[in-house]
Amino acid sequence: MMMADISNKPVEQVEGLFCNEVGYQTPKIDTRAAIFKEDKILLVQEKNGTWSLPGGWCDVNVSVMENTIKEVKEEAGLDVVVKNVIAIQDREKHNQPIYAYKVCKIFMLCEVEGGVFKENSETIGFDYFTKDNLPILATEKNNEEQIQMCFDAYKAGENWKTYFD
Question: What is the pLDDT of residues 74-90, one digit of tens each?
């Protein structure tokens, strides 16, 4: 009932989210890849037309780094290497809508090693954007503040200090 109240969701819907869970409730982990080319950031276009950093839920038995690499391959068709952790964020403090469960978002700075985009079940395209010319973002996944943070980390290079809250 507390989770339903916090998330403004019906109790039945919240029960459905947690009915298969046993033991202590822990947050889900969402990884996001920040990839740059010529001072532009790569975003993938979702099926609904909005744009996001490639990423998604961290699979069981897959590390955060492995998941980031896998998600970029699935959504953008690119092979990447993870260079740095940009941030570890409590999703609820940065993205809307508030979910009935907690999410820990981990942003990773990556470099492309190869690959080619292929339309897939999640995305219909990708492109690189300047920080001043962003498309309509999938703000439940990433917002302008988070994209700006990725640009700041890219510009800072090895001097970047991981942000966390």
Answer: 999 999 999 999 999 99
- Map residue 88 onto helix, strand or coil: strand
Pick from 87, 105, 85, 106: which is nearest to 95 by CA? 105
Give the CATH number of the domain where residue 147 resides: 3.90.79.10
Counting Cβ atoms within 10 Å, is residue 23 exposed (0-12), middle (13-18) or buried (19+)?
exposed
Q: Which two tokens stand for residue 127?
A: 């492109």
Q: Which structural domain range is residue 73 located in?
A: 2-16+25-164
Return the structure tokens found at 81.
């290497």
Cis peptide before 135 (omega within 30 of 0): no
Closest C-alpha among 138, 159, 155 to residue 39? 155
Q: How far, in Å, CA of 164 to CA of 78, rounded?
A: 27
Number of domains in the chain: 1
- Mean pLDDT of all residues belonging to the chain: 93
Please choose, from the candidates 77, 28, 83, the residue with its C-alpha nearest in 3D space to the C-alpha of residue 54. Answer: 77
Q: How far apart are CA 71 and CA 130, in angstroms?
A: 22
**pTM, to two decimals:** 0.86
Q: Which residue has the tokens 């907690």?
A: 102
